[in-house]
Amino acid sequence: MIVALAVAPVVLVTMLIGLRGVAAMRTTSDFLVASRRVSPLLNSAAVSGEYLSAASFLGVAGLVVKDGIGSLWYPVGFTAGYIAMLALVAAPMRRSGALTVPDFAEARLASAPLRKLAAVVVLVIGVLYLVPQFRTAGLVLSVVTETPYWVGVVLAGGVVSATLALGGMRAATYVQAFQFVLKLVLFIVPAMWLLIQAGPDVRTEATQPTEFTHFHEDTTVTFRVGATLDVPAGAELVDRDEGPRELESGAWEVPPGTTVTFADGTPVPEVRGEAVPGADGWERPLLDLDDEGYPLLGTWAVLIATMLGTMGLPHVIMRFHTSPDGRAARRTAAFTVALLSVFYLFPGIYGVLGRVLVPHLYLTGATDSAVVALPAQVDDGTAGTVFTGLLTAGAFAAFLATSLGLLLVVSGAISHDLVPGGLRQLRLAVVGAAAVIVLLALPAAGLDAGTLVTWGFTVASSTFCPLLVLGIWWRRLTAAGALAGVTAGLVSTIGAFLISVGGPDLHGWVAILVAQPAPWTVPLAFLTMIVVSRLGRPAPWATAAMLRLHLHEHRLSPFVSRDQGDGAARDLGHSSWPARRSSAVRRITRRLGR
Amino acid sequence: MTGRRVAVTSPQTRLAHARRRYRGPWRPATLDPAEMPRAIALHRAGRKRAVSALAALGVLIVGLPLSLSLSLWPGLDEVRVAGVPLSWAAIVVVPFPAMVAVAFWQLHRAEQAERAFDTDSLDNFDKTGSSDNGVGEDAS
């Protein structure tokens, strides 16, 4: 009940703030980029609020429980992406004046097919990213209250699409900025409380990892999704009616929906293909993907994917377009690095405590829910319930904020780039896209949220990252080169994804490069773009199209004589360009300026 | 009152309307030839600064995992601060402050570059500003 009381305010405030944004919305620009009047601090809070998804709020701590301390490299990559964004993309991207990434591609390279392809990439990334958000919303709500999985999914879909269809980007901005503050508070305060409340024994145990081999108390485990366990000899279940019962040793196919209670002191079954929490290598501060024995390669692969992927995430780039000018966009990126750095100091605390207190979550593969499961383990009274409620509210804020941004770019891609239409169609696209994502998320309860989100990052890093970096900094890029490079990146990442899901069993470094292909797909996309562009010739206006992105808006006009003093400096960003005037007028102006 | 409406425009507007215009959402990018040198200089300056910021970031991203995996400091796992092994603390306490520092350093330099082109080099800029074809020139 108290949990419902915690989630309801988040949902209600989201809707209320959304309604506030309804006023004065008339054009596509109002809807997609909040009329470009968002200050850097508000915008960076909104960027951070949008970026801290379920994968950050719950996923990182869950990965630490499952895979070890090395998982703390994910947040490093997530944050590093904004430095690359700041240095390479933020200001020029904003100065391009485009509304979406496909818009930018068309403005820079004048290719309608490229625009359509970019819109398709946005859809791919959006689906890979949105399905896990909705799925985790359903899962968390079903863990803390006893509602069925679909309730959370449908609730999340309904709230997000209603807020967005009514209020557009302006609503999303205020909602996301508010939810960043909410998430920060609801993450840090419970972390401190947990650390204090856990007591010295748990704290010492947390820093001395030992393998999870025996249950330390009667442990109830609910398998929402089926699993295959290797049961060791001597494992016992406790039946409420019949008392202890010994499990058969060997493989045990657990059907979905089973709830069992393992007896205190019995050995822990192992999950096929997963390392046990606290096993050898858990304490190593590197990321050994799938335990293939190449921790350094695994760490770098994840860092490359997350860092370069951040630079190409369409919903993050869209947020930069809401800044009034390039300078504000750059400041937004810098502030975001600071805000994210504060948040990411804390997932490790939940992770190491989770390994001690809720290691059994690894049996069901639901380590994502470690964060919300922790308070109940530390305090089974009112305080524990209150903190569970607070963390659930924070997690819900995380899904809502991220889904808002993603749904906005997905509907923008459909209704602004693929089938251009007006504001009415945009609103319809929001509702339609939300419905499709809810339908996709309903059967996805068993998917690993972290994996899908990481694939979203990988697709972004090998398609949009090269397109933006070369488009902004290399004048010889041609439309054909961009098309070829984006296609190469998209096809190679999707190919690797299909192989890793349904292909043959791979081992060693090959397995890492298939499971996390960014180290070769990103260079492949860059190389394809460069080679194909070199084969063709850039259009005559290409140099102007690129250089234009680097001129700041509030520069002094070269046509104003310095004798007139500073007051005569004109704001070129908002006046009609001298170059757009007829050649006769231009010639005369230039003569006067000399 | 005949109800007939006549468009009243200046000769300049009539001239502008008479020219061929690009239809559709796209039109070729225009850059005032007089601003070309400044754009080129800003592009170069921005590239130089971006490369050095990314190099600093690269040192962190490549170097920290490498030094942890080679155990350049062998005692890192045993040394504990308030019970926490230093090697765990190293991937939280080192990268985030470092990244904040790099971000604000880069922000400061990028804004400084733009300011510099508005004040200091305006003289310099005026001299090359009149040439229409500034692509190959070095404006700084």
UniProtKB/TrEMBL annotation, chain A:
<feature type="transmembrane region" description="Helical">
    <location>
        <begin position="72"/>
        <end position="93"/>
    </location>
</feature>
<keyword id="KW-0813">Transport</keyword>
<feature type="transmembrane region" description="Helical">
    <location>
        <begin position="180"/>
        <end position="199"/>
    </location>
</feature>
<feature type="transmembrane region" description="Helical">
    <location>
        <begin position="114"/>
        <end position="134"/>
    </location>
</feature>
<dbReference type="InterPro" id="IPR050277">
    <property type="entry name" value="Sodium:Solute_Symporter"/>
</dbReference>
<keyword id="KW-0472">Membrane</keyword>
<feature type="transmembrane region" description="Helical">
    <location>
        <begin position="390"/>
        <end position="414"/>
    </location>
</feature>
<comment type="similarity">
    <text>Belongs to the sodium:solute symporter (SSF) (TC 2.A.21) family.</text>
</comment>
<feature type="transmembrane region" description="Helical">
    <location>
        <begin position="426"/>
        <end position="446"/>
    </location>
</feature>
<feature type="transmembrane region" description="Helical">
    <location>
        <begin position="509"/>
        <end position="532"/>
    </location>
</feature>
<dbReference type="InterPro" id="IPR038377">
    <property type="entry name" value="Na/Glc_symporter_sf"/>
</dbReference>
<keyword id="KW-0769">Symport</keyword>
<feature type="transmembrane region" description="Helical">
    <location>
        <begin position="294"/>
        <end position="313"/>
    </location>
</feature>
<keyword id="KW-1133">Transmembrane helix</keyword>
<feature type="transmembrane region" description="Helical">
    <location>
        <begin position="452"/>
        <end position="474"/>
    </location>
</feature>
<dbReference type="Pfam" id="PF00474">
    <property type="entry name" value="SSF"/>
</dbReference>
<keyword id="KW-0812">Transmembrane</keyword>
<feature type="transmembrane region" description="Helical">
    <location>
        <begin position="149"/>
        <end position="168"/>
    </location>
</feature>
<protein>
    <submittedName>
        <fullName>Cation acetate symporter</fullName>
    </submittedName>
</protein>
<feature type="transmembrane region" description="Helical">
    <location>
        <begin position="481"/>
        <end position="503"/>
    </location>
</feature>
<dbReference type="InterPro" id="IPR001734">
    <property type="entry name" value="Na/solute_symporter"/>
</dbReference>
<keyword id="KW-1003">Cell membrane</keyword>
From TrEMBL, chain B:
<feature type="transmembrane region" description="Helical">
    <location>
        <begin position="85"/>
        <end position="105"/>
    </location>
</feature>
<keyword id="KW-0472">Membrane</keyword>
<keyword id="KW-0812">Transmembrane</keyword>
<feature type="transmembrane region" description="Helical">
    <location>
        <begin position="50"/>
        <end position="73"/>
    </location>
</feature>
<feature type="region of interest" description="Disordered">
    <location>
        <begin position="121"/>
        <end position="140"/>
    </location>
</feature>
<protein>
    <recommendedName>
        <fullName>DUF485 domain-containing protein</fullName>
    </recommendedName>
</protein>
<keyword id="KW-1133">Transmembrane helix</keyword>
